[in-house]
Predict the structure.
Amino acid sequence: MIAAAKATALVFTITVLFSGPGSAAEDPALLKDLTAVIRLLDLPCDRVVKARREADNSHIASCGDGRRYRIFVSPEGRVVAKKL
């Protein structure tokens, strides 16, 4: 049941995360969504404090603790966060 809830939350978050234009660095909702994605992928991040859109479906997220991740959707349709 927890896995299903995580999957549902992740799908919702990704839909919100990658829909529409906007200034990633200025959007508190996007920063919160990126934090949620990183945490759902079981990666360490206290909270995302800055984000930069790289391309469609790709963001660079900077955490308050100094960690940085590239978050994107893979060709298989999976959300991936790679540490930079």
Summary: Strands lie at 48-55, 58-63, 68-73, 79-83. The chain has one domain: 2-83.
